[in-house]
Design goal:
The complex is a heterotrimer of chains A (363), B (225) and C (235).
Chain A (H helix, E strand, L loop, with lengths): L1 E9 L5 E10 L4 E5 L6 H8 L7 E6 L2 E2 L5 H6 L1 E4 L11 H5 L1 H5 L4 H14 L16 H13 L5 E5 L7 H18 L2 E6 L2 H7 L2 E6 L3 E6 L1 H6 L4 H7 L3 H8 L12 E2 L5 H11 L3 E5 L5 E6 H7 L13 E2 L5 H9 L6 E5 L3 E6 L1 H8 L1
Parallel strand pairs in A: 3-8, 3-9, 6-7, 7-8, 11-12, 14-15
Antiparallel strand pairs in A: 1-2, 1-4, 4-5, 9-10, 12-13, 15-16
Helix pairs in contact in A: 5-6, 11-14, 12-13
Chain B lengths: L5 H8 L2 H6 L1 H35 L4 H13 L2 H12 L3 H25 L3 H10 L3 H34 L9 H10 L2 H29 L9
Chain C lengths: L1 H11 L10 H33 L3 H12 L3 H12 L4 H24 L3 H9 L4 H31 L12 H10 L2 H29 L9 H12 L1
Helix pairs in contact in C: 1-9, 2-5, 2-7, 3-5, 4-5, 5-7, 6-7, 7-9, 8-9
Classes of the chains: A alpha/beta (363), B mainly alpha (225), C mainly alpha (235).
């Protein structure tokens, strides 16, 4: 939907901010522009709505060369959210959000309805409507900024470090809400950040840019993490690339091991056999209808004669199908058993996630 | 300052011969102007300093001081001079006191703003390093407040140079005397001379003080926002 | 305190309050000179200050203009123009407009510059044209400083209009310049008091106007301190 064709931006002082960029941004996706400072990501973003003019090359938005449209006209159809937001201090929140509708000539009733709708969408209470920006917290202001950008429901949103100016807790919450929002509205979003973790979390596709505006790699997060195209990309992704990948893969993607299961009525001997076959000194105790009861030491089961008479220890951390493999790894390292137990609704036992399975998955 | 058919008006506006004949008077007027300006600015500065320190030390006093000085400043200068006459008569004191008061008003405000404008972090660091209050004031806070204070000094000096001409109405005036002369004689030359000289004087004083500010604050040389 | 009682007597005497030499008449004249000059100055200075501030050029001159303006010897200008043009409102207006213009230019300029860059960025990014940006965003935000400039300017004009009487015009200054040669201290003092009061009232009234005109959302800031800071930084 947005295409960069050999776009270059050279500034008056000679620096090349963007170098011969070819990029195809797909409709309905969140495309992240990420890279170290000086890589031209913000410059690239701002060329889309002509806040900066390209030195050479073409930028096509929805089939039209952006240079053929009058800039104010172009910008009214593109939402723009910047880090410091830039709320108008002299206008109330309601007036701020209503800015583009007003500019586009909407009538008052329609605007008011839309403002109320947007407020709910971004999760703000109705009381803020009559307040002024300086009376709101940083997180609230950020949400108003997003609401304001969404006002006329533009198909494209440009966002430049929109969550950068708030603390990590608020940022994480804003990111989650934004993803939820995007599920609903499915806009074409171009998102600039310097934080690779944010990029991986938020992006459908990530463009990593290098100093001087050179594109290093453009791929979905999983591919990026699995097959970095160069040393630069690998470095930028960080040393814990493997862990980051695990965070992207759900537990359901891996076929769980049945594991050493016994029922409480089983004899200690049976427990020993099962455990030996599996290679552990403990067994998983499962009751009627596959209800997970816990785990037990084989030695104790032998002593007491029956599994059910040994101490049943709980699995403190359990994972479900939708959790990430990273959560599974987390559970694994905190349990004596060294595995993660997967359950479904009603504590039903689904199997075990072992380290072997993890390794096999990401290599 | 001239706009009109140059030859005719210029010939009328300035009769150079008159300037030559009255060079002594002009020089005397200029000297008196400098004297009045210098004395009142000096006095104003010396008086403003303790007042500013008081306002900084006891912030609750600042608002009333500011209000009072603001109100005084609103009073037309000629009115202020005249209101002083019952107390000081028609002597040079009236002019000096009036001029000093105006200088004071401007300087107190700028000194306080300048001192308050010193970064709190800097003050805390200085205190933590063991500066006594007095040394901290003179070695840390004042130098940093200097740009704002000198900006105030600029304003005060240029304003005073303008105000001195008004004192001509109560018998002094410096270059303002030339205005009186021009008025009584219905003659433009002394007027033009007076205006041009006082403008030049103000300009020169301003430049001098800007230079002083630059010289005293080498750390502020890189342009900020 | 003979002086004081004489003064009060003069101020409260009924002759003072009627007729062409009365306080009301003189006050009206005084205000007429002042407001006319203020209006002219606003018409001249606002576009310059706002234009320069919006275009972000020529700032150095705009900032230093006020300081240069302070150097204008109003008395000299009044007398000079009077000598050239003769009796009438022109001499006083020329001088008053000359001293009224600089503070408005400087303050308007600084006011426009005080608009946060990200607010401008957001406004342009939303698709506002240059004109819309100016009228809907920059001007309202600049309003506190613009009003402060108009206030300062008008008060100075009201104060300086006193000098109109020196060249034979009306206004409250007449009490000063008629009384001085006569040695009539009460008249002179009365005039001085009246002008002082008028100036103060102007300041207060304009303060209220400013409060009404400026958006509630704009943070309270010492307008003069802000201007002062900018001027000092530019030096």
């Amino acid at each position: 939907m947005i295409t960069f064709e050999s776009v270059t931006k050279r500034f008056a002082d000679g620096t090349t901010a963007v170098h011969d960029l070819d990029l195809e941004i797909s409709k309905g996706e969140v495309t992240i522009l990420v890279g170290p400072s000086g890589c031209g990501k913000t410059t690239t973003l701002r060329m889309i709505n002509r806040m900066i003019e390209a030195t050479s090359g073409r930028i096509v938005v929805d089939g039209q060369d952006v240079r053929q449209v009058d800039p104010p006209q172009l910008r009214r159809g593109i939402g723009y959210v910047i880090q410091q937001i830039g709320l108008f201090p002299h206008r109330t929140i309601a007036q701020n959000i209503a800015t583009v509708p007003e500019l586009s000539g909407w009538d008052k009733r329609r605007t008011e309805a839309r403002v109320a709708e947007l407020l709910t969408l971004v999760g703000l209470p109705a009381e803020v409507l009559d307040r002024y920006p300086h009376q709101l917290s940083g997180g609230q202001r950020q949400r108003v900024g997003v609401a304001r950008a969404l006002a006329v429901d533009p198909p494209i949103m440009l966002m430049d470090e929109p969550f950068g100016a708030v603390d990590p807790i608020v940022r994480s919450r804003l990111q989650d809400e934004f993803l939820r929002l995007q599920q609903e509205v499915r806009k074409t979003i171009v998102f600039v950040t310097h934080d690779i973790d944010e990029a991986i979390k938020m992006g459908d596709r990530i463009a990593i840019l290098q100093q001087g505006g050179v594109l290093a790699q453009y791929a979905p997060p999983d591919e990026l993490l699995a097959r970095p195209a160069s040393d630069f990309v690998a470095d930028f992704l960080g040393a814990e690339r493997g862990l980051k990948r695990l965070a992207l893969i759900p537990v359901s993607a891996v076929k769980a091991e049945p594991g050493p299961t016994v029922s409480p009525d089983d004899e200690g001997e049976r427990a020993r056999a099962v455990a030996e076959a599996f290679g552990s000194d403990w067994v998983v105790v499962v009751g009627d209808q596959r209800k997970l009861l816990g785990w037990a030491h084989v030695g104790e089961a032998l002593e007491r004669g029956r599994v059910g008479q040994a101490t049943l220890r709980p699995f403190l951390l359990q994972v479900r199908a939708e959790d990430s493999l990273r959560a599974a790894l987390n559970a694994m390292v905190q349990s004596h058993t060294g595995v993660a137990v997967r359950v479904s609704d009603g504590d039903r036992y689904e199997g075990l996630v072992t380290q072997e399975l993890l390794t096999r998955e990401i290599t | 300052m001239t706009d009109g058919p140059p030859t005719l008006l210029a010939a009328e506006l300035v009769r150079w011969s008159w300037i030559g004949d009255h060079a002594d008077d002009i020089r005397d007027a200029l000297l008196q102007h400098l004297e009045l300006t210098g004395l009142s600015v000096l006095a104003g500065t010396l008086l403003a300093f303790p007042m500013a320190l008081t306002a900084v030390r006891w912030p609750r006093l600042y608002a009333p001081i500011l209000g009072f000085t603001g109100a005084l400043f609103t009073i037309p200068s000629i009115a202020l001079f005249i209101l002083l006459i019952p107390f000081t008569g028609l002597q040079i004191w009236t002019a000096l006191i009036g001029l000093t008061i105006y200088t004071l008003l401007i300087l107190v405000r700028n000194m306080v703003e300048g001192l308050r404008g010193v970064d709190r972090d800097v003050r805390e660091a200085a205190q933590a390093m063991g500066y006594t209050p007095a040394r901290q004031l003179f070695q840390v806070e004042l130098p940093l407040a200097l740009p704002v204070i000198i900006a105030g000094l600029r304003i005060a000096t240029v304003t005073t140079i303008g105000l001195v001409t008004v004192t001509a109405l109560i018998g002094w005036g410096g270059l303002g005397q030339l205005f009186i002369t021009g008025f009584t004689l219905d003659f433009t030359t002394p007027l033009v001379v007076g205006i041009v000289l006082s403008a030049l004087l103000a300009f020169a004083a301003d430049l001098l003080l800007v230079g002083l500010q630059r010289g005293l604050t080498p750390w502020a040389r890189t342009r900020g926002s | 305190m003979n002086v004081l009682t004489d003064l009060i007597q003069w101020l409260t005497a009924p002759e003072q309050w009627s007729g062409p030499d009365g306080i009301p008449a003189r006050t009206v004249q005084h205000l007429w000179y002042s407001l006319l000059a203020a209006a002219i100055a606003i018409v001249i200075a606002l576009p310059i200050g706002i234009g320069v501030g919006h275009a972000r050029r020529g700032g150095l001159l705009a900032i230093n203009l006020t300081n240069l303006g302070r150097a204008i010897p109003s008395l000299g200008i009044i007398i000079l123009v009077f000598t050239l043009v003769g009796y009438g409102v022109v001499p006083i207006e020329v001088a008053l407009v000359a001293i009224a213009v600089p503070p408005i230019v400087t303050n308007s300029f600084v006011g426009m510059r005080s608009v946060d860059p990200e607010v401008r960025e957001a406004a342009q990014g939303m698709g506002m044209t240059g004109w819309q940006l100016l009228v809907r965003v920059e001007l309202p935000i600049a309003m506190p400083l613009v009003m402060a400039g108009i206030r300062t300017s008008t008060v100075q004009v009201v104060a300086t209009a006193t000098l109109a009487a020196y060249v034979g015009l009306g206004g409250l200054g007449r009490y000063l310049f008629d009384g001085l040669p006569q040695g009539d201290l009460s008249q002179v003092l009365g005039g001085a008091v009246l002008v002082a009061v008028l100036s103060l009232l102007t300041e207060l009234v304009l303060g209220r106007v400013q409060a009404l005109v400026v958006s509630d959302g704009l943070a309270q800031q010492s307008a003069e301190a802000a201007v002062g800071a900018k001027v000092q930084k530019a030096a």
